[in-house]
Amino acid sequence: MAEPIIERAPGDPRQKKINPGLKFALEMGPLIVFFLVTYKGDWLTTLFPVLGEIGKPIFIATALFMVTSVAALAVSWILTRTLALMPLVSGVVVLFFGGLTLWLHDDTFIKMKPTLVYALFGGLLLGGLAFGKALLGYVFDQAFQLDEEGWRKLTFRWGLFFLGCAVLNEIVWRTLGHIYPPDLADKYWAGFKLFGFTALTFLFMLTQMPLIARHSPEEKPEE
What we know:
74% helix
């Protein structure tokens, strides 16, 4: 029987696990590349003049973001022979919006990419609950175990959080564009995209620890 392309259902013992540190690097690596190249794109073009043909730093960053996103998915596939749902969806959106950005030479598309991804994840989580499915287990199944009620509550909260992040991204990049010159606005937005959303996610996760503790199944001592 052929192995599934998408990761197995939460709790499936056949699901291959990946080192948490490596998993974090694969997920954050493309974002870090995007941030660094947006800030240092001019310096990079002095080393590799051919990159200057792509355009300003955010366009170069977009191109490398697409390459590293595909590379991260490829490494994940090689290690587990499956693809995690959220990185896969994010990767597809990166390729689509990144392609539009480079083709039309308009960075609006890559700036709207987080908006779409967050809105999509939020909609999927809340929509799944409407059909009795707590899809958040696909994201955090390797991190901790919860009972059914815990997964439902946590899925609902993360769904709202993702929708809030979608709105926040639109506010931030559009506001920065009105306040600062284009190149500086690009850099500030790239910084917020990496550090701002990462910090918000971490803080939100901390606020959910009491719920996780209440709904984690107690381990029964071995007889």
